[in-house]
Amino acid sequence: MNPAEIDALVASAQAAKAAGQPISSLMDESATPAAIPVRAPQLTEFEQTMMSTTEVPIGMLLDLTLPVSIELGRTSMTVQEILRLGRGSVIQLERLAGEPIDIYVGDRRFAEGEVVVLGEHFGVRITRVLANPAASSAANAA
Asked: Which residues have CB under 8 Å from 122's CB, separation 6+?
């Protein structure tokens, strides 16, 4: 569409609105430019895939990459307290020393573990994989 056609379409829409006609009445097949074919989307293949009851093979999921997060603990601080932090500051966490740490896969609590040192690196030894991560998170929140 060129600028003159756009201006004409806007003017006719404003005139239709002023006359109380629905603007949709302006859009007919003749108003559609010939250069842009308009057709309804064909979703039959998508619908058939979504409606099928066949299971997806687990092999399709094995290459997915998910974020793994280790949570040592949490705390809440005011902005003023955060601004006072500097090198050597200690932040006290709500978790007690010796308590297992939480391991999250995606946003779900997946396991518990303990911190280990591997050479110069920290690591986590998984001590318990949670059977039902959603139920365990709900039980801990209560």
From this structure: 115, 116
| Strand residues in 1-142 grouped as ranges (E) | 68-71, 101-105, 108-118, 121-129
How many whole angstroms separate alpha carbon 73 and alpha carbon 127? 17
Tell me 60's DSSP state.
Answer: G
β-strand pairing of 68-71 with 121-129: unpaired
- List of residues 6+ apart from 12 with CB closer than 8 A: 26
d(CA 52, CA 38): 29
Give the β-pairing of 108-118 and 68-71: unpaired
- Using the structure block, give the residue that is written with the tokens 């108003």: 31
Q: How confident is residue 129, by pLDDT bands cut at 50, 70 and 90?
A: very high
Output the pLDDT for position 29: 47
Per the CB < 8 A criterion, the answer to whether 103 and 112 are in contact is yes
The model's pLDDT over 31-58, given as tens digits with 9 standing for 90+, comes to 555 556 677 776 766 666 666 666 777 8
State what percent of residues in the chain have pLDDT above 70: 71
- Please list, in sequence order, all residues whose beta carbon lies within 8 angstroms of the beta carbon of residue 25, skipping any fewer than 6 positions away: 16
